[in-house]
Amino acid sequence: MQKGRGIVYDDVSKCVDEVIAYIGKDICFGMPLALGKPVRFANELYKRAKEDPSIKLKIVTALPLEKPQGKSELEKRVLQTIVPKLFDGVPDLEYMLDYRSGKLPPNVECYEFYSKAGTYLNDPHAQQNHISSNYTHIVRDALDFGVNVFANMVSYKEIDGKMHYSMSCNTDIVLECIREIRKLQEEGKKYLLIGEANQNAPFMYGDAVLTAEEYNYILHGPDFQYQLFGAPKDPVSVPDYMIGI
């Protein structure tokens, strides 16, 4: 049985209800690396797994973006005043907060195929759960690993009177993933595709533009218009400006 396409939700809780009802409680959840993560959806799915130990949740992704927290007391005190200003309106990935504090529940496992250098030193869980793959093969390897729910952030714009969505981040991986999951769905297998629409994400054109029907569910509403994670940058130097010209 294939799930419907292009269903739009403005309530992430209802969307996750549908995901669990259709997929079941053995969920292998894939997200793109870095900025392309659908934070609201990821947080709600993780919340359900925390509340219900019978849900087995595997998270497969790469490079989760984390606000700096500091290690020493001095670092923490300095960052407590800086981080809220630099990352105002940027939501955290709740599973990473719990992971860093050692509170990840036993029914949730995290796997990454790429990590920031030095992020997981002396961390057996992360080192043992590393997926040795790359951009060329990660979609194949993730599906072989068992990913049955894939979600990513998209931008949106009305074009010729119809709403369109854009793969604003990691277009190459996302398009391949959508294509491969569609094939599996046509074979009658249970997979779901979810897009989380955030107008703050860049709208890319060309092959990156899709309609809602390419997804099973689109999350679209005020709750998803959060600020994007962005590292502080120095002013553009004259040489960099000239290179840009």
Structure description:
By secondary structure, this protein is of the alpha/beta class. It has one domain (7-244): Glutaconate Coenzyme A-transferase (3-Layer(aba) Sandwich). 33% of the residues lie in helices and 19% in strands. It has 8 helices and 9 strands. Strands 1, 2, 3, 4, 5, 6, 7, 8 and 9 form a 9-stranded mixed beta sheet that branches. Strand 2 (26-30), helix 2 (39-51) and strand 3 (56-61) form a beta-alpha-beta unit. Helix 1 (12-23) crosses helix 2 (39-51) and helix 6 packs across helix 7. The model has no long low-confidence stretch (mean pLDDT 92).
Topology (SSEs and partners):
Elements: E1 7-9, H1 12-23, E2 26-30, H2 39-51, E3 56-61, H3 73-86, H4 94-100, E4 108-112, H5 124-128, H6 138-145, E5 149-159, E6 162-166, H7 171-186, E7 192-197, E8 209-210, E9 217-219, H8 238-244
Parallel strand pairs: 1-9, 2-3, 2-5, 3-4, 5-7, 7-9
Antiparallel strand pairs: 5-6, 6-8
Helix pairs in contact: 1-2, 6-7
